[in-house]
Amino acid sequence: MRVTVYIKIKPEVLDPQGTAIARALSDLGFAGINKVRQGKIIEIDLDKTNAIKAVSDTESMCERLLANTIIEDYSISIGE
Amino acid sequence: MIVDTVITEDVVSRHGLTQEEYKVIINILGRKPNLNELGIFSVMWSEHCSYKSSKRWLKTLETKASHVIQGPGENAGVIDIGGGIAVVFKIESHNHPSFIDPYQGAATGVGGILRDIFTMGARPIANLNALRFGDPQHSKTRHLLSGVVAGIGGYSNCVGVPTVAGEVNFHPSYNDNILVNTMTVGITTTDRIFYSAAAGPGNPVVYVGAKTGRDGIHGATMASKEFDKNSEDSRPTVQVGDPFTEKLLLEACLELMERECIIAIQDMGAAGLTSASLEMADKGSVGIELDLDRVPVRELRMSTYEIMLSESQERMLMIMRWESVDKAQEIFKKWELDFAIIGSVTETGRLVLKKDGTVQCDIPIRRLVGEAPEYNRPYLPILSPSVIAAADVPAPQFSLGEVLVKLISCPDTASRRWIWEQYDHLVMGCTMIKPGEADSGVIRINDTQRCLAVTVDSTPRYCLADPKIGSAQAVVETWRNIIAVGATPLGVTNNLNFGNPQNPTIMGQMVGCIKGMGEACKALDYPIVSGNVSLYNETNGNAILPTPVVGGVGVIDNCSKIVTSALRNVGDTLLALGQPANRKDGWLGSSLYLREIEGREEGAPPPIDFVAEKQAGNLVRNLIAENTISACHDVSDGGLLVSIAEMALVLKVFGVDIVTPEDILVHAWGFGEDQGRYIVATSSPMKVIEAALSASVPAAVVGVVNKSGMLTLNGEIIITVKELSYQYEKWLPGYMSYKN
Amino acid sequence: MKAAIVIFPGSNRDRDMAVAIRQSFGNYPIIIWHKETEIPKVDLIVIPGGFSYGDHLRSGAISALSPVMRTVEMQARKGVPVLGVCNGFQILTETGILPGILMRNIELKFVCKTIRLKVENSSGIFTAGYTSGQILSLPVAHNDGSYFADNDTLNRLEDRDQVAFRYIRTEGVLFGNPNGSMRDIAGIYNDNKTVLGLMPHPENAIYPFNGKADGQIFFDNLVSSL
């Protein structure tokens, strides 16, 4: 089972990379860029078939390693 | 199966081989090669691996001296600095890959040169780089510069080797062919140096490091081809670096080297497993048989061709004794690296590759190496252009202050702080002289009082005008850079960057540069111990300026006797050594002044007098050793006034009241680039003058350090150091943030 | 006086630290590999700088899970002084031994330069040799040095005098906050001021040649305060 974890910087935390991307996009001529937030995607191939268990395991992974919840939010999606 | 691919003329030429070269291959094998074999010949006979256009000229270089332990031909050169310490160093180019992907290209360039050093048993203690970019106004320059700098920093900083010196030039000839030359210096003890010659039939061939993927296949051939507009589509051949794995590989190899395990070791750089196994076998006059099913791979279904030609990074090949295998394996397990026995040394003298139970390649090694093509390419000797008399260069339309600002803030001279602050220049804790403080970086050797002085240099505008003088100048400038901090120059590594050698003019540049370099090294007892050649640096027929980069290494026995360029004491007298006191003009041909102020890139470059260079160099070194001078800086781009200004710009505190002879041509006296000169600061000017007199070195008093923070010339204010500093520091950060 | 240095795959300022400690303590520290679970009785545990695990995921995040860090945590709780420099600071925050986190530098570039620091308080063992308000010059060399914590945590750190060092903001090229740290924080203490994390590198300023050796003073001070 494929689990995807999306991690992004919390809205209240300054994200200099997001700001830099926004500026670069504007420089390239893309108009109307209000805000960019960036983060990371982690794909995990899990040896499990029970979706509920997979989500709870992945949550535990996020809390213990994948995300630092002082500055990051995470969300989990399940699927191929 | 790939082996069955029919070898047509087209297949041969796509491998960068000529029909004549192909005929030699058939003769060596006694049959037609299969595709694996063709691929192997192709990379081994590429310009990058075989030096086929440059070899006959490289042989003329001075490479021997009593302190040289290993000259060219190994992974790096080795010199003995006394006290049982050996210094291992080399420079290498990663030009084409860095143009295609600046971050990864530059990063893997650093990775490759680091491996060349620790393969020989040395711990890398300093990195340097020589970079050339196109016109700052060219649309790609910013992107390339920021990517290359980030890539060099990203890799060196993570591995933990300080980047202590370097140089950066901009010129339109590099618009589509940037140059990224990286140099590493390492140290070991004279009794612990490792070589690449395989030995002992039956001994295991061991693969360690990262897994093999499909990256960089045919990188060596790519580095030997001219660019065309399709080059940027060849991105998949750029290797991706992993400095973390490199750091582990470095520690694991050095740990293993402390035991008596390794017979031979070679890193897998350009042409990967192919060149590593062939070079090790050839040097040891043995054969090697590999079972490619045992090579650790990262991707599924990799063919023999792909495994042999992959340029995946952070890998090493070793020959060891069977009884050492367990111990070695344990060390590599501790560092979480792959370790695999993939074959053995044989007596056959052949490279035999097996995969899926069949022999997929069988090549006689000595003949592949020995019969590699070597060309005596036609060349046009380059004649030195006519000399431009100083009197024929008109006085500037600007004030002296304006000229100085233009010269100190032009792209080739402005402060590189924006760059070197992204390099960790302090890690390892031994950096005695940081970037921006002196002509060389200086690093202390732990647990000793000794230091190494390291520098890189090339002045391509001189080389274009007169290759022989230009490349000799590059050598003497590194020599002066090393002397200027108080060190004794000991050896050189060179990186010869040129365009297409099949063009007789380019070939003439290369021949001239090698001749000049050879003469200079011979005259200064300054042997070349390692190097690299990068050809075909041209796009659509536009070649780069001839750029022979010289990396120099020197030693200082007492770390308390080092000087920087910084003016520290008010009242110190500045003297120009090598400068006749009554000289009223200076050499403006091919100078920075002529280019930046007059817009002219012409005229013969300043000549070099090796005898005078040695006299001045020895004098300066003695003065530093006797603690007679408090600061020293060699005179190069921009002449006397730019050099004096640069000395004031280190600390940005004190100024200089500059004095000149009467009736001078100010712009020629101030900005002429005559060679063989140093500016020194001293509280005992008479002592310096007397020493100069007895050493037959001309000397001229050129100023006194003041506390007002002004630069004045014969009493008239030129500019404040504060304003000059602002201009000097502003250009590069401003440029990189799109402000200019 | 004995120190131990904990090293991880990718640590790269361990030798610098060992040399600096030897210079002041008179003996070479014990080196502890990260897989070990025991640390001999020492007066100081140091987590050095570097790129442990290549800074992958987040700086210090993977090292924080190494077995040795459980032992460091336990020893810290018992009051054994712990010093984390640069990557060591990042590892200490990722383990939760120190609050907050070190984020990517605000200019998104690695920064290596000498900066000026103010000693915020001299009540902890690592700053006891200084006077409050004293100014030091030390180098920084990092990619992720921008200290972040929520306002409550920052207020608490200040209320309890846990801010050990701050960057000094002045105009000009050479000085200032090099990474965008909140409230200019360069180094912080734990609750009882026995654990210090800081981004600057005292271990790279130990030779008096060519500038002040404020780093040497840092380690010399430890000899009397530990």
From TrEMBL, chain B:
Subcellular location: Cytoplasm
Amino-acid positions noted as binding Mg(2+) 2 in the UniProt annotation, renumbered to this chain: D116, D267
Boundaries of every PurM-like C-terminal domain copy: 200-354, 570-712
Residues annotated as the enzyme's active site: H48, H94
EC number: 6.3.5.3
Domain of life: Bacteria
Binding-site residues, ATP: Y51, K90, N494, G531
PurM-like N-terminal domain sequence ranges: 73-187, 439-556
Chain positions recorded as Mg(2+) 1 binding sites: E92, N532
GO biological process, one term: 'de novo' IMP biosynthetic process
SUPFAM superfamilies in UniProt: PurM C-terminal domain-like, PurM N-terminal domain-like
CDD domains on file: PurL_repeat1 (cd02203), PurL_repeat2 (cd02204)
This protein's UniProt keywords: ATP-binding, Cytoplasm, Ligase, Magnesium, Metal-binding, Nucleotide-binding, Purine biosynthesis
Reaction catalyzed: N(2)-formyl-N(1)-(5-phospho-beta-D-ribosyl)glycinamide + L-glutamine + ATP + H2O = 2-formamido-N(1)-(5-O-phospho-beta-D-ribosyl)acetamidine + L-glutamate + ADP + phosphate + H(+)
Coarse class of the protein's main subcellular location: cytoplasm
Coiled coil start-end: none
Group of enzyme by EC: ligase
A molecular function GO annotation: ATP binding
GO cellular component: cytoplasm
Family recorded in the similarity comment: Belongs to the FGAMS family.
Quaternary structure (record): Monomer. Part of the FGAM synthase complex composed of 1 PurL, 1 PurQ and 2 PurS subunits.
Function: Part of the phosphoribosylformylglycinamidine synthase complex involved in the purines biosynthetic pathway. Catalyzes the ATP-dependent conversion of formylglycinamide ribonucleotide (FGAR) and glutamine to yield formylglycinamidine ribonucleotide (FGAM) and glutamate. The FGAM synthase complex is composed of three subunits. PurQ produces an ammonia molecule by converting glutamine to glutamate. PurL transfers the ammonia molecule to FGAR to form FGAM in an ATP-dependent manner.
HAMAP family: PurL_2
Protein name: Phosphoribosylformylglycinamidine synthase subunit PurL
Gene field: purL
TrEMBL record, chain C:
Cellular localisation: Cytoplasm
Principal subcellular localisation of the protein: cytoplasm
Protein's pathway: Purine metabolism; IMP biosynthesis via de novo pathway; 5-amino-1-(5-phospho-D-ribosyl)imidazole from N(2)-formyl-N(1)-(5-phospho-D-ribosyl)glycinamide: step 1/2
Active-site residue list: C86 (nucleophile), H201, E203
Listed GO MF terms: ATP binding; glutaminase activity; phosphoribosylformylglycinamidine synthase activity
SUBUNIT field: Part of the FGAM synthase complex composed of 1 PurL, 1 PurQ and 2 PurS subunits.
UniProt-recorded name of the protein: Phosphoribosylformylglycinamidine synthase subunit PurQ
Taxonomic lineage from the root: Bacteria, Pseudomonadati, Pseudomonadota, Alphaproteobacteria, Rhodospirillales
Gene assigned in the entry: purQ
